[in-house]
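If you are new to this repository, start here. Below is one unmodified record pulled from the training split, so you can see the exact layout before writing a loader.
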Amino acid sequence: MTPTQPLAGKRILVTGGTGSLGKLLVKRLLGGDLGEPERIIVFSRDEAKQHEMRLDYLHRRAATDEAIFRNFERTLEFWIGDVRDPDSVLSVMQGVDVVFNAAALKQVPTAEYFPFEAVQTNIGGAENLVRAIQQHHLPVDTVVGISTDKACKPVNVMGMTKAIQERVFIQANMRCGDTRLVCVRYGNVMASRGSVVPLFHDQIRHGGPVTITTTDMTRFMLSLDDAVDTVFAAVRIGRRGETLVPNAPSSRVVDIAAALIGDRKIETTVTGIRPGEKVHEIMVNDEESPRTVIREKWFAIQPMLPELQTEKVTKPALTGEFSSSGPLLDLEGTRRLLTEHRLLVDQVDPNEGELLR
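And here is the target side for that same chain:
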């Protein structure tokens, strides 16, 4: 891989490529952010979402850039399959150079009610990817495991399974000697499916009320592009066994709601925390902070396993956990950030596809 265009000429697999992050990741890969790939394979089990994604490009709604549309026609391939199925995973990984694992069961309440489903997708899926590389000696250069803040001090099933997924990928550097496996961990993605911003948009458009789980709740504020930047940083600067975390701002959820409501006469109601939900997000915990360094604008958590530690941390980047509880953006700062990312209600067409964002 060249430092400036590490994905040029590569065959890339995006598992869960029809999700919110996966779709924007694919769009930016098609745009050649890290070089123009030879092939991009979108791997998921939802044929309807694959069909919608294909139509988004064909109708030019999502790909107004000519280069992106040209690369879609020439480069993009859709593959039906499931990360839970070892044979399906092995088939799609033939000839692949780089894997982005975005496949996940990620809704917190869903995972609480169906915990073993989360285990099979979030842990079993990761193991299937690793085992395919190890047992069949696949010449995969890089695997990026996409994790979540909820894997840090996990209190819910989704976070617990993602925490183990991180360890599966990190330890796999000892099993797959020619493959670099790194993880990324980030918090609330403002425009992703199931997050509070699109929920608040919908409630505001219907006249309210806007539902807030608790007035104490805080969340990191990242856009989908910020999340993809973190994934790309893992490719560019991530080292074997590391976990990269964006140094992101955070806000109170009540301020997010107030910024989106603006001058409208819309009520807010407090509904209580959902099963497994955290009041504050944590992206680096107390145990990890002593082995965390700064790399460009990201925190890089060094692996726990001594066999994988290549960088001696003499001056940690953090003195304690990195939490959304503070320091916090005020209401005006939250409003500016939402405006900057074109996420205010009046800036977003409710009928446009996620790819346009």
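Two things worth knowing about this chain: The first strand starts at residue 11 and ends at 15. The CA atoms of residues 16 and 44 lie 5 Å apart.
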